[in-house]
Amino acid sequence: MRAAPHQVVFKSLADPTRRALFERLSRDGEQTVRMLTDTSGVSQPAVSKHLGVLKHAGLVRSRHRGRETHYTARPRGLAPLVDWMSDYSRFWQDRFDRLEDLLKRMDP
Amino acid sequence: MTAPSSLVIEKELPHAPEKIWRALTQGALLKEWLLDNDFQPIVGHKFHFRSPAMPKWDGLIDSEVLVVEPTTQLSYSWSALGLESVVVWTLVATSSGTLLRMEHSGFRPDQDAAYNGANYGWQKFIGALERVVAGLA
Predict the structure, then answer these.
(1) What ipTM score was computed for the predicted complex, to two decimals?
(2) For position B1, what pLDDT does the model report?
(3) Which of chain A's residues have a Cβ under 8 Å away from the Cβ of B135?
(4) Residues of A with Cβ-Cβ distance to B23 under 8 angstroms
(5) Long-range CB contacts (within 8 A, 24+) of A90-96
(6) What global pTM score does this model have?
(7) Cα separation of B122 and B127, whole Å?
């Protein structure tokens, strides 16, 4: 089965290093791979690989300038995750209502 | 747009924690309000919730019991369509009944444990996510 968009987004953000990279780009704006490597505590190839996964998930975009690649967060990439959350929110609200109905019918 | 934190639902109910605990942990009662299941309140028990099948999905939710603290806390994993999440129920007795809290997180807490303790935990990330989402509109 082809992965649903929310799965791709969740899986790419399930890794704490990628989550930290995405958060940093969201907070601080555009960064080069080198700038991200200096503060991430992992090697440049590892940072590049993580950024590739985030890019595939639509969470960041990149552009080349000179010899450096610049990355920017793409907040709209979070939309599938937000949709997933709001679907489950409706689901649980409905189930809470049913639980309350059941509790009224149960013995104390 | 709904913020991701909407996955926490908290409600004060005019029922004792012991009674709500039964509704959360007895398979037959659980089926009445949540989903058909073969749940047992035993840590490590693997079970399924069964929701109606849909095209390309058999409707099975793979779960495993993670925490059972009678009348106070219950937690199980919730895996569907290849995505593993976790549901945590917390019950707090109040003067008029119980404060019931449900939290459904997109990641298992142990996926965070490997990295700098809680520095980049899910809760912190959700906070960041809310700011990002708020900026989307």
Answers:
(1) 0.76
(2) 25
(3) 75
(4) 99, 102-103, 106
(5) A92/B7, A92/B9, A92/B102, A92/B104, A93/B9, A95/B33, A95/B34, A96/B9, A96/B11, A96/B102
(6) 0.71
(7) 9
